[in-house]
Amino acid sequence: MRYKVQHVTRYDYADPVSLCHSIAHLKPIDTRAQRCLSTSLRVDPWPAVSREHEDFFGNRVSYFSIQQAHRALEVTAVSEVEIMPVPTPPPERTTPWELVLERLYDRGDGLMSDARIFTLPSPQVPLDDEARAFAAVSFTPGRPILEATLDLMTRIHREIEYDPTATTVATPVAEVMRQRRGVCQDFAHIAISGLRGLGLAARYVSGYLETLPPPGQVKLQGADASHAWFSVLVPDHGWIDFDPTNDCIPVEQHITTAIGRDFQDVTPLRGIFYGGGQHDLSVAVDVNRIDEAVG
């Protein structure tokens, strides 16, 4: 399956901005389940400095600096991505989760030991006791790790209400656990906090989800949005993604932009600017299938 993704972010300032420095995680990465065929980033006004680097997690990070006065900033990322689904192993045949803990500390197992950074607390995902207790209900003794994680994902979907007005990007995991409501970012952070609390390796995934209009209706342009989910390292099978917002294992409709310890590592666009006063922010995302028969 091939997709074209367009992500437009626009800031309109009340007063002129004299200088801004920004970094963006808007260019999709290559994974075993996806290949980025092309990608570009357009910034208006034209930046005086622009460059790209790969961060510690393998993400494509764009940096730019605008050194002229401006009242608006628009950043447009356009990418074409091919999704190649990877079969999911039978959940009941995966390694018991306690044995996964042992393998994480086996120095002879490079993939597992390299993942230990994802067992540690991070700026937005501390080791919350309530999140750990919530996860422990699914991780009973001897239970296969994939089976247990699927159960955790379903429980988050069922017991945490999706409410876009309940939280912000800075809402702590502990508060989300208390109020039992949030958005995709919060669902991922809860799962990651709980899994790390048990000693397992879990990481945050940022990207997009193809949304389809109701039957008979036309899809509205700009109506899609960024999405987030989490992944767990399963021995002999690698990282497997889980989307608690939609209670599913991502297959063909999820597009990965970046991975990290939490949202802070993969923020789509952030930076500092001088001046501007108050500002209005608008984001428009389009995820459209490409007709592979064309060309």
Structure description:
The protein is α+β, with helices and mostly antiparallel strands and 295 residues long. It folds into 2 domains: 2-83 and 267-289, Immunoglobulin-like; 91-266, C8orf32 fold. The protein is 19% helix and 39% strand. The protein is built from 6 helices and 13 strands. The protein has helices spanning 97-104, 110-114, 129-136, 145-159, 173-179, 184-197, and strands spanning 2-27, 34-44, 49-54, 60-66, 70-83, 161-162, 181-182, 202-209, 226-234, 238-242, 254-260, 269-275, 279-289. The strands form 3 sheets. Strands 1, 2, 3, 4, 5, 12 and 13 form a 7-stranded antiparallel beta sheet that branches. The protein has a 4-stranded antiparallel beta sheet with strand order 10-9-8-11, covered by helices on one side. Helix 3 (129-136) packs across helix 6. The mean pLDDT is 92. It holds the Pfam family Bact_transglu_N. It comes from Allochromatium vinosum (strain ATCC 17899 / DSM 180 / NBRC 103801 / NCIMB 10441 / D). Residues 176-246 form the Transglutaminase-like domain.
Q: What is this structure, in a nutshell?
A:
The protein has about 300 residues and is α+β, with helices and mostly antiparallel strands. It has six helices and 13 strands. The protein folds into two domains: about 1-85 and about 265-290, Immunoglobulin-like, CATH 2.60.40.2250; about 90-265, C8orf32 fold (Roll).
